[in-house]
Structures are given as C-alpha cells and as structure tokens.
Write a structure and sequence with these properties.
Layout: E1 2-5, E2 8-11, E3 17-20, E4 38-44, E5 54-58, E6 62-65, H1 67-70, E7 79-85
Antiparallel strand pairs: 1-2, 3-6, 4-5, 4-7
C-alpha cells in the first residue's frame, strides 16, 4: 500500500511507490528546474536526527521508492524533506 495525502506519505515496508514532486516559490508559482538542478529526498526518524534512514535523488521530478529501499526499515513514523540545490549553488 502506498498513499500520499496532504504531504503525508504512507508506505508498507517492501512496497513500491512513485510520485511527482512539484516545486513552487513563496508565492505559489511553479519553479522550473534547469539542467544541473538536483532534488534530494531525505528520510529521518526525527527532524533534527543526524542519521539518514533513506536518501534518494529525484530525477525528472519523480520520486521512486523501490521495495529494497524499505524492506529492512524498522516500523514507525519518519519525517522527510526535499532539498533543491540549483546548478548555481543556491540551496
């Protein structure tokens, strides 16, 4: 089972999931990605935890979670963020 509802992701360990990441500026206007821009999805147990549970580079605006990414992950709740690093170094 895989669902996304109001930015909350639910996934059963070992299942697959894919969804599109849309980037907007502070006014809500879409931000176009350019060559060299990198989106990174990072999953942790708590917001300030230094330990990364899962990290994926997002290509073509789609985050894909494969069964091997989560099959050995402990049951529980996690937090995630998505970081955009522009080709010019702006984060």
């Amino acid at each position: 089972m895989f669902t996304v509802n109001n930015n909350n992701i639910s996934l059963i360990r070992g299942d697959s999931g894919a969804f599109t990441i849309s980037i907007a500026d502070t006014n809500g206007s879409p931000v176009a990605l350019t060559d060299g821009d990198v989106l990174t999805f990072t999953l942790r147990r708590t917001p300030r935890s230094p330990t990364i549970v899962l990290q994926k580079t997002i290509t073509d605006g789609t985050l894909t979670i494969n069964p091997s990414d989560t099959q050995d992950m402990p049951f529980g709740s996690y937090v995630y963020d998505v970081e955009l690093k522009r080709a010019d170094g702006y984060v």
